[in-house]
Amino acid sequence: MKKSDFFYDLPQELIAQYPAEPRDSSRLLVLDKTSGNVTHRHFSDILELLNENDCLILNDTRVLPARLYGTREGTGARVEFLLLKQLTTDTWESIAGPGKKAKPGTFFTFSDRLRCEVLDSLENGNRIIRFIYEGNFFEILDTVGQLPLPHYITEELEDKERYQTVYSNVLGSAAAPTAGLHFTPELLDKIRAKGVKIGFVTLHVGLGTFRPVKAENIEDHHMHTESYNVTQETADIINSTKQNGGRVIAVGTTCCRTLESVYRDHNAMCACSGDTDIFIYPGYQFRCIDALLTNFHLPESTLIMLVSAFCGYKNTMNAYKVAVEERYRFFSLGDAMFIADGAKNVQTD
Predict the structure, then answer these.
(1) What is the count of structural domains for the chain?
(2) Distant-in-sequence, close-in-space partners of 250: CB < 8 Å, separation ≥ 6
(3) 16 and 124, same structural domain?
């Protein structure tokens, strides 16, 4: 298939700049992946769409305040650093801009508690930097750094926690697993009370998730790599759900990629850690998940390709067309869609 097959027209005003308040008041498009039928709900209605023997799998990664603005020592030049990956206790791979001001051997000051030295420049233009500090690095980062919001969000969030899920726990993402932003603690309690098992995986979302597909033939696209972890507890929840005839429901494309990667690499669901570069597009045969909860994704992105693989190309593009017509809010801070076989279709919106 071609990249252009996944293009759709989106009015600029439908790109959400602020999250819904409260979290679970966002809208929910419900798509029956068999019939293609589309109905409209609110996110709090997700409780009605779950069955007692289902399991809900969430990504508990937490977003790093990974954007830092430093001043070059000696010249005063201002450079932005975006942390990508921790290599050792004090060294990170990062993006630096403008890069010509961040040459190996240069030092930058971020605050009276935090400095860095540029150690190396990689072939892809990224920098290896070493931080110099006293105390707890992540506590300092929390006071100095900023959340790396996607480029299409032009407004600052008043509350940084609104770009974190309420169950975020493991620090390390460059972006939020946004399908989970709609849950409240109260809604999660109601889901558990219904008998739905909740499990957690960790996949640290990289900035590659926003990287555009450049190859016109999508099979030529090289997927970015992200690190994941699945605990024994979560593996047991998934395996028992399947044995009992329930559905494994992935909350977000990050959970989907994690679970399908485990099946691809181990031929079963098990406790494991690793890196994944899995690229899911139409033609892929799903082995783990039975339903998907996700936000609306950018045109021509790998994420809309994943959704198309799960529920069919025509169903996906039609659902997006309907979402635009119905004025849903798009992308990271926008509304959600629930995709399942025979998804319940009581109209409430």
Answers:
(1) 2
(2) 57, 256, 259, 288, 289, 291, 292, 293
(3) no
**pLDDT single digits (tens) 234-263:** 999 999 999 999 999 999 999 999 999 999
Tell me the per-residue pLDDT of 181-191, one tens digit each, with 9 for 90 and over: 999 999 999 99
Q: How crowded is residue 241: how many other Cβ atoms within 10 Å of its Cβ?
A: 23
Domain enclosing residue 215, as ranges: 3-63+158-340
**pLDDT tens, residue by residue, 282-299:** 999 999 999 999 999 999
The verdict on residue 153 lying in a domain is no
Give yes or no: residues 135 and 87 share one domain. yes
**Run of H or E residues at 304:** helix 302-311
| Contact yes or no for 340/290 (Cβ under 8 A) | yes
Q: How many CB atoms sit inside 10 A of residue 7's CB?
A: 12
Tokens of 121: 């420049």
For residue 88, tell me if it sits in a domain.
yes
Tokens describing residue 55: 């399991």
